[in-house]
């Protein structure tokens, strides 16, 4: 088998390396990882796609490698192959870790996922310390501070290159607001700030584009639905996992924005949970401008109405605890 595939490879005429970025997905065989890997295989900005997981990447890799798009896919399985999966990468996307079941909060995932994120980020620090790292694994409000502490310990921390993925909150907000307004969701943009769990997810409905006004009932309905969108999916999946397909879509959209930023495109703005001075907290999600260096600029929150100011106070209280928990996990 081995010989046949070597023979087959040797029969192929060498192709010059296609221009583009090298991207690794860690947790690539999972519910998010597989559709995300497919979407990244379809992205023309990607020249090399490394799929790493502790199980099942050979099959996922064989399957995706038959797609006639230009990215070259390679699979890596098990911790012994982590360093090879990461070496030379420009962008590392991390959806590794366990998902919620009904009745759990994202914070209930901390005990398992914190250790997974630490191990993977130690690999990033060793093998591709200059890569952009986008973290999906929950609880994002704590896993991003964990990653920052791992990188600080390794002496490789660059706050501009570590981003928590909160795009799904924006994707949901755009969808739900468009439903209420009777618009196409592609024409709606809702900034969602704060973090990625419950009350820390703060949609700024006063800043919706196109400019729109909402009744107090609509604001209450939309805020609740956006904050609990993840739970809506967890309950509907009834114990088999959380959002995977919409998350893969959101992560692929965010990764594409990161790659366009790295390429030097102008005016790329996305919401993301990053090291921030927008509030007194060390991490906060808000609109950020992406560029060659990663996060080039963090946008101010803009004017908030009274409902949003009160939501911000609640968000900050919970965020402070989640950040502290993540930092302490590495420091203690
Ligand atoms: N940021 C966000 O908006 C969202 C985050 N999530 C989170 O994403 C994570 C993954 O969710 P799913 O893909 O649905 O879970 P899943 O269980 O389907 O897949 C997770 C994958 O991670 C792999 N994995 C476990 N330990 C690993 C390790 N040490 N190294 C590499 N891979 C490892 C597993 O083998 C599995 O293939 C969960 O923590 C979930 O809560 C989910 C939806 C949205
Ligand atoms: O709700 C969950 O556990 C997964 C998640 O983060 C989301 O769907 O927003």
UniProtKB/TrEMBL annotation:
Keyword Cytoplasm annotated: no
One GO cellular component term: chloroplast
Catalytic residue positions: 196
GO molecular function, one term: L-malate dehydrogenase (NAD+) activity
Enzyme Commission number(s) of this protein: 1.1.1.37
Gene3D superfamilies documented for this protein: Lactate dehydrogenase/glycoside hydrolase, family 4, C-terminal (3.90.110.10), NAD(P)-binding Rossmann-like Domain (3.40.50.720)
Record GO biological process: glyoxylate cycle; malate metabolic process; tricarboxylic acid cycle
Domain Lactate/malate dehydrogenase C-terminal residue range list: 166-329
Catalysed transformations (reactions): (S)-malate + NAD(+) = oxaloacetate + NADH + H(+)
Keywords attached to this entry: Glyoxylate bypass, NAD, Oxidoreductase, Peroxisome, Tricarboxylic acid cycle
CDD domains: MDH_glyoxysomal_mitochondrial (cd01337)
SUPFAM superfamilies, sorted: LDH C-terminal domain-like, NAD(P)-binding Rossmann-fold domains
InterPro entries reported in the protein's UniProt record: L-lactate/malate_DH, Lactate/malate_DH_C, Lactate/malate_DH_N, Lactate_DH/Glyco_Ohase_4_C, Malate_DH_AS, Malate_DH_type1, NAD(P)-bd_dom_sf
Short name of any one Pfam family annotated for the protein: Ldh_1_N
Lactate/malate dehydrogenase N-terminal domain location: 22-164
Amino acids binding substrate: 100, 106, 138, 172
Oligomer and partners: Homodimer.
Xref: PANTHER family: MALATE AND LACTATE DEHYDROGENASE (PTHR11540), MALATE DEHYDROGENASE 1, PEROXISOMAL (PTHR11540:SF71)
Protein name in the entry: Malate dehydrogenase
Organism of origin: Carex littledalei
């Amino acid at each position: 088998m081995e010989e046949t595939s070597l023979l087959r490879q040797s029969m192929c005429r060498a192709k010059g390396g296609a221009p583009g970025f090298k991207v690794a997905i860690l947790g690539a065989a999972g519910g998010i990882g597989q559709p995300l890997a497919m979407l990244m295989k379809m992205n023309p900005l990607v020249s090399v796609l490394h799929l790493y997981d502790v199980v099942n990447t050979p099959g996922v890799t064989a399957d995706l490698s038959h797609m006639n798009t230009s990215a070259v896919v390679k699979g890596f399985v098990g911790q012994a192959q982590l360093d090879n999966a990461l070496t030379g990468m420009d962008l590392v996307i991390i959806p590794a870790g366990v998902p919620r079941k009904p009745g759990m909060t994202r914070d209930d995932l901390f005990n398992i996922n914190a250790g997974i994120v630490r191990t993977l980020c130690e690999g990033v620090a060793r093998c591709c310390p200059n890569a952009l790292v986008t973290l999906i694994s929950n609880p994002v409000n704590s896993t991003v501070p964990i990653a920052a502490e791992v990188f600080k310990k390794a002496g490789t921390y660059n706050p501009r290159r570590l981003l928590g993925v909160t795009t799904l909150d924006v994707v949901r907000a755009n969808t739900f607001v468009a439903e209420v307004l009777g618009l196409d969701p592609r024409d709606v943009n809702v900034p969602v700030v704060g973090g990625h769990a419950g009350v820390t997810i703060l949609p700024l409905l006063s800043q919706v584009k196109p400019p729109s006004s909402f009744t107090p009932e609509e604001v209450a309905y939309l805020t609740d639905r956006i904050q609990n969108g993840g739970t809506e999916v967890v309950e509907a999946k009834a114990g088999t996992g959380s959002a995977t397909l919409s998350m893969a879509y959101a992560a692929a959209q965010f990764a594409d924005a990161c790659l366009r930023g790295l390429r030097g495109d102008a005016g790329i703005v996305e919401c993301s949970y990053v090291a921030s001075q927008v509030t007194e907290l060390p991490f906060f999600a808000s609109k950020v401008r992406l560029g060659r260096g990663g996060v080039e600029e963090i946008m101010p929150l803009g004017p908030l109405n009274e409902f949003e100011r009160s939501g911000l106070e609640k968000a900050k209280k919970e965020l402070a605890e989640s950040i502290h928990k993540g930092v302490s996990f590495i420091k203690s």
